[in-house]
Amino acid sequence: MHTIKDKQRLMTRVRRIKGQAEALERALEAELGCADVLMLVASMRGAVNGLTAEVMEDHIRNHIVDPDRESTKRAQGAAELIEVLRTYLK
Q1: Distance (Å, rounded) from C-alpha 19 to C-alpha 8?
Q2: Among candidate residues 57, 59, 27, the one with its CA nearest the CA of residue 42
């Protein structure tokens, strides 16, 4: 499975998200201000979106078509989809 070969990179992202969730929990327990809490939430959201984009791109490349290896119309569509996902999940 392709997620296994990228396991370490994905686990690093997950650990970062876990650390951000723990920081958010501490901030809420300490009753930090709304702006500080919102910044932590935004950081977590960005990290989750990055993980989502990476897994989705790998899925497209490994289970649909890899635009780096093919030059078909379908591969062009996959490349466009990957770019849209990257932009959308930024």
Answers
A1: 16
A2: 27
